[in-house]
Amino acid sequence: MSEHSENKTFDSKQAAKYLCVSEISIRNSRITGLLGGIKAPSFRKIGRKVIYLKSDLDSWLENLPVFENTTQMKFEQHNS
User: Are 11 and 53 in contact (CB under 8 A)?
Assistant: First the structure.
């Protein structure tokens, strides 16, 4: 992967679309620190503008729990 694509930036709307979540959810995650019940992706501020680095969003996605079936998912949610 090229350095340029790794440093790509997203605004809140673009980041939400990239992560398949609502824009409201990603905005709220900056307040609560959680997105989907886990630690929210890192963001940066330039003045009033909020940006997300693609590398931070990719890292967040890579750290999501992986399930092989819905039963496994339900079992883990029940035991956490």
Answer: no
Q: How far apart are CA 75 and CA 41, in angstroms?
A: 25
What is the C-alpha to C-alpha distance for residues 32 and 24, in angstroms, rounded to an integer? 12
Measured distance CA(46)–CA(49) in Å, rounded = 5
Coil, helix or strand at residue 3: helix
pTM for this prediction: 0.79
Question: How confident is the model over 29-75, as pLDDT tens digits?
Answer: 999 999 999 999 999 999 999 999 999 999 999 999 888 888 876 66
Whether 12 and 19 have beta carbons less than 8 Å apart is answered as no
Q: Tell me, which fold does domain 3-79 have in CATH?
A: Multidrug-efflux Transporter Regulator; Chain: A; Domain 2 (1.10.1660)
Question: Tokens representing 30?
Answer: 């900056």
**Can you name the residues that pair with 53 across neighbouring β-strands?**
9
